[in-house]
Amino acid sequence: MKARLEEQLADALATLKTDGLVPSDVSPQITVTRTKDPTHGDFATNLAMQLAKPAGVKPRDMADALVAALPASESVREVTIAGPGFINFFASESTLSDVVRRVLDEGDAFGRSEVGKGQRIQVEFVSANPTGPLHVGHGRGAALGATIANLLSAAGFDVQREYYVNDAGRQMNILALSVWLRYLSAGTAADFAFPSNGYRGDYINDIAASLRETEGDAFERDPAAVFSGVVDDEVVAADGTTTGDKEAHVDALIERAQTALGDNAWRRVFDHGLEAIIEDIRVDLGEFGVNYDEWFSERSIASDVEQVVERLASAGHLYEKDGSRWFRSTAFGDDKDRVVVRDDGRTTYFASDIAYIDNKLARGFEQVLYVFGADHHGYVTRMKAACEALGHDPQRLEFLLIQFAILYRSGERVQMSTRSGSFVTLRELREEVGTDAARWFYVMRRYQQHLDFDLDLAKSRSNENPVYYVQYAHARICSVLRELGHRNLAFEQDAGLAALDQLVEPAEAELLTLLATWPELLERAAIAREPHQVTGYLRDLANGLHSYYNGHKFLVDDDALRQARLCLLLAVRQVLVNGLTLIDVSTPEVM
RNA sequence: GCGCCCGUAGCUCAGUUGGAUAGAGCACCUGGCUUCGAACCAGGUGGUCGGAGGUUCGAGUCCUUCCGGGCGCGCCA
Fold this sequence. Notes:
With 591 residues, the chain is an alpha/beta fold. The chain is 51% helix and 13% strand.
């Protein structure tokens, strides 16, 4: 409809040009938008206002001329000129109600489109270090990433969902050490101080226990030998002074552990810890409705890092300073250059990132989305710089910086401290408020906006909770259909579709317009990567339904009217389902 | 100091490439269930869109600047 109006306006404009009313070199953007106010019709354009100045004519006169040049159309009931020079289009009733037929025909596919043209796009999200369970901060990235992937898929993109597993590096060594030390203490009740920089959560004990189950006491070593002579751990005295070095302490212990166990055994401890945590994360996310096509291992591209570094070197983007090799990212707008190879020859984390970028693009993704926490925004420039230096178009990388979620309970901010061990895990959140509410709340705000997550509100089974409000609309429709059966009445879709012209109430017109808007909204939300537009829309649609419900009977005596209204209800229910499915919120028939 | 994000009703937030009278939820006030589910609906109170300039037919939206808040500015991961 919109596109048709735009074509007709383009024709009208061409006519005015040949008539000499509009200079031929003027070619404004012709846009037709939906109106907010029903008194302005269904669609509007500002074309006359754009043309008025170059043509030297008053906007309203220009509008008159445009309207006169428009062809008659069956789908348009009336065209008016309003305000400073808007042209308003009123859709004919049959055009409005026709959407019901489309919704029922297309079903689950209603709203899906092909604007993505099958373009291959990767969405990488969460990618939390596998050193412990996910916490509530990861939850927002998970919900947003999953929903954005769903939106893109619905908009016709070929989407791949990926989790980047940081299974290399010092943090993983600390994890392996932590597991092994718990394993030791569990086996021998050996008395030694657990390093202050180790991972202390209960889950480490569980992993250690399962390690003992599968490996027996094969990894037992004498703790005294491991600890003897290592740098002292950090100790904070009562007066606040500190002694020792927790970083050096834990690094020394890692070396001792590797020596004591030997490479093979160390590797098995390491992998046991890694796999246990990855599995935990996988299950956790799965229960949250978040699934991946690929769990991509950082280790798997370790051997590519050197090659990528050499490529940068031969392209002239590297230089040596202080024994290290630097990437000249300032040449691409970064505010400082970045080290890629340390003076001891080891590559940096950033070097791995570059190899990963190259790997992604080599896999054929035309567009690559990184869903990052807002604290990562500093990486954006250097990542794009590296992308460009490798000879790729940096526009193919896209970074969504997700602002933090702050939990509130009883009006008080919930403190999340990893150190104190009192942080809230995603699993605990799901158990407390339920998956539906968690998914909804995480995506209901723009991702650029901090999220105040009110635990009490998310939990409440009351009118204050927006999740229930929308689900209730769905359940209500189901309830009407059940009642239909109780009264021994039948639903006849063809009869209803034939009687759609009976839907003339304002509440019905509003619902019809909302239904017709869904495909446009879905497309916009996908292109903008903004799931919150969907929750906002669903709220409006539910509101339209509730309002309709309170004002009108559906199971009326008039057969044609009853069938028509039931068709409308089914169409509304279908779109509620389509929308809620995108954000992975359930659609209960009874509540 | 530099960079990114944010600032809209008492609170939490929408506001579609710049459009018509700035919207919604919560809170507060009023009204609506003998008839398909009141987890609902209808109406009302409430705004210098952080401040000041600028761009234009038109600015919450774009530009400049200032103020306020969050985050980041490692050869860490």
